[in-house]
Amino acid sequence: MQFHTPDTFEEASRLLAAETGTARVLAGGTDVLVQLRSDIVVPDTLVDIKRIEGVKEIVGENGGWRIGAAVSGAELSEHRQVKAEWPGIVEALDLVGSTQIQGRCTLTGNLCNASPAADSVPAMIAAGATVSITGPNGTREAKVEDIPVSPGKTSLSPGEIVSSVFLPARGANGGDAYLRFIPRTEMDIAVVGASVSMNVEGGKVASARVALGAVAPTALLVEDAAAAIIGTSLDDDAMAKLAAAASAACNPISDKRGTIEFRTRVAGVLARRAAKIAYERATS
Amino acid sequence: MIHVTTSVNGDEMEFVCDPRETLLDALRDRLQLTGAKEGCGTGDCGACSVTKDGRLVCACLVLAAEAEGSEIGTVEGIAEGEDLHVLQQKFLEHAALQCGICTPGILVATKALLEKNPNPTETEVRYWLAGNLCRCTGYDKIIRAVMDAAAEMREAA
Amino acid sequence: MAFDEKKSTFDVIGSRPLRPDGLDKVTGRAKFGADAYAPGMLHAAVVRSPHAHARIVKIDTSKAEAMKGVKAVVTRADFATGLKGENWNILENVMAGEKALYDGHAVAAVAATSALAAKDAMKAIEVTYEVLPHVTDVDEAMKEGAPVIREGAVSPGTPEGMHPNVVGYHESGHGDVDKGFAEADLVIEDTFKTEATHQGYIEPHACLAQMGNDGKGEVWCCTQGHFNVAKVCAHLLGTDASQIRVTASEIGGGFGGKTAVFIEPVALALSKKSNRPVKLVMSRSEVFRATGPTSSTSMDVKIGMKKDGTITAASGVFRLQGGAFPGSPAEFTAMCSFAPYNLENVKQIGWDVMTNRPKQAAYRAPGSPMAAFAVESVIDTLCNELGLDPLEVRLKNCSKTGTRANFGITWDQIGLEETLLQAQAHPHYSAPLGPNQGRGISCGFWFNHGGETAVSLALSEDGTVSVSVGTPDIGGSRASMGMMAAEELGIPYEKVRTTIADTATLGYNEISHGSRVTYASGLATIEAARDTIRKLCKRAAAKWGIDEDAVIWEDGCAKPSGPNAGEFEPMTLQQIARKMGATGGPIVGHYEATPEGAGVSFATHIVDAEVDQETGSTSITRYTVVQDAGKAIHPSYVEGQFQGGAAQGIGWALNEEYIYGEDGRLQNAGFLDYRIPVASDLPMIDCVIVEVPNPGHPYGVRGVGETSICPPLAAIANAVSNAVGIRMKQLPMSPPRILAALDAEGK
Asked: Against a cut of 0.90, is the pTM above it?
């Protein structure tokens, strides 16, 4: 295994593109090292991006926030403004692993690992977040929901690397929330995850996005679920429709973490509970 | 092989390592600092907890090569000379260890907690330590020791 | 004082001094299994079967042997031949012979100059398998047509005509259960299942071994029984037990799982072949796949009760799979099942069944927690149906001193009733419950054990004492031994140092199991101290020129026994020790025996559980342990055992399980998906120490380590069942299972 510490994303991209075998990016390493040590993926080239300038920075941009690819969960949680505007995203990343994992894990890594159960991904999708990508053909922007394509696989081309995540401007009376179900109180992979982001006008939901995790090969943006609550004040009827739409969107598997029936049912429950929290945040 | 220069508990140290080696491997096998333990190798048990540049991390999930230029803190650096840290003393007094294999990681983790939050609630301590598995104690005496140590440190501060 | 005297007032016992190994453990310098290094040391890695059941057609080690840094490769051919019985079973488990019998079964091993080189070489060993049909479920394994794990493993006494996987049978009881059921106002019969769980010690198995072609070996390892390691290694390598010296490292948890031998013979074989010290450390995944989890069970329990709560009859059938070898604790399960109850009519049957899983190992009161789950669930169902208080019913029927046990013995002095009365009086039992909460109680029983024990106690010239024991310290026992020695000798606890002696320096000691250490090594320490006192008194008598019988030991001094013995100034231990070189030489006390008076132990637990009815998620909101300790030597460590057992039981009841796929492979071989409780999962665990002395120990000590895990599965099942209004019959009560149960009942 070759280990590199490039100074720029362009150099990182060249190193990744030049590898004909397996190449991996190292940011927090909380997935890469687990895979390496378990012999699941032993890269031929490993590119540590943490020496690139700006990767640890959180910068305001166009009313939103640009979050460097190596900003850790602990660092994000300590950023008061991001936490105030996007508590759902911050809490979602904060749910990943232990305090120790928080010292290392990143939004970008959580996304590029392409696990359908990644906690921060539904939250970023609900927020309408985008990413910046550096590749052999220059840079490009992409929606978060377009990055994972199947468990463990992304839409990134060889040599492409995500350099930052952009959280858009929150807008007036906005709120988001992410909830996940795990068997214990901590340390598990999500069995179901649900995130809701909304803006409220005059007590009614003006716009909303609902995303689910761990209930399909990739995190899902569920437009029917959002439609169920837009224009409502989350009355019982709207909540029931939201839950039904969330459950209907599920296409899960039964595995060691949960059954199809369980995931489908609990997706609706969590969507409902997350919507309530997001609404409270938007209106408080 | 990669040559690494790093600081461990304030002492400058050097070693060479395979790029696949973890910081935990290097601490134990290259530097003979065996206080950090490998309980799982996948970041699930916290027995290898150390600080890297002030952040609590699992040494099993950091490559040894990443330690270049870093400041690493381990359980061996908690006591000052022959004087135990309040946490260490409280762990002894409260019988907060049975087998003791998780103890180094838990001490490193709780020291990091109390530096960040000198007055944690029981719930905050429990969630902070959720990544430090203990199979012997049921956590009861550990939590009591941490709360007592925090109170004593606040008084002394 | 008379040496057979039972003590009831104490100076040291019952206090809470710091443990002797404490400083090392809070500073990181305590040396555990993987913390030893030797000059020229090699690292080893083990090739393991990916198949649940397969014939090993060929093992090609040539590529591995040609790799840089590789110094030795071993397979079954490198171990002793002609072994019989349990020795053959252990060897077959340590290194597969003709067949791989479970996912994770060791097939070959390699030693190389670095851990990474060993791992790379391990991957280069090519094993050709012929995959065979497999079975992992206990009920499936008993059925006609199930794949046969191995012919000829059946124990004597097993009924004929059973499937060859059924290898053991136990039946006991008394009275006429049919008559008893006929007398009942209500009879409930139910079937229960529990999944296999793992002890989950945080320290993986690790050893450092060295052996030459002279047959002499040295082993450093984390084990509950280093004398047993020496014995087993000698058998498996064809050498003499006395030629293998084993030193027990600090041990990072065992709970029964480190009573078995897995890697030490492999490391020795690699060392012999390479003529270098070899270190072998298991990965966490290897620990789950290839050490000894518990049995999984399938159980039928039937109990009859009168309207007033009197149990008229009870019967149970307990089927346990023990992995690919005989030896599941089916007999213990059957015997423990109804032990808390005084029954006129009772019958219990245990079946030992083999499957394609790793050989089960002891886990804290092996077999008892599962039985309690089934039995105490049925008792609660009866209480609910008949509108009776579950604690009153247990008090009404509980075993007492002098009643006849379900497995035939007459109970000596026991404290079950006291635990029930203290539970009843505890504020927890009458505290109000919140919405979606339920309360459960359960009793539990474990035999406890004595076993072969040797202790040596040596005096230093300065009057301090060194105690050598042969039972690895798995929970603070060095503190307890030091306290008992100090108590007897009348010296401060700080003047005693207790060490775990290696196998070359002390007589044979059985494994630290069966909750035996504080009882048996404690008794031996007390007796070794008394032997020392006799010698001290003899020296004083010689100095005073009086008969040794005229000298007594009191307050740490030799004194004339009365006015007739003469007028002499008492001599302290220090004074006698200072002169011992000139008065007859070193003073060393000994005790070697197989004590058989281990007192049984009972407990009653109370637990509150809250269930989220929309997700099936359970949280434990309050927990109280009430257990008879006989006499608590160091109350903090007794509480620690109570709390640890309860916490492990909570994991077992709610989330922990071995999950096998259709392919017979273990799917959750890591702490991520084998979900042991984390700090935020648990409440504080309240402890009440009951002290009904064990007549078989000078201070009344009963073992405490195992009984604490007997009630939790049942108590939590009762709490959850009461919270949701549905009887939960399968463990773990994971959220999908609870939600499915709610669905099935239309709730």
From this structure: yes
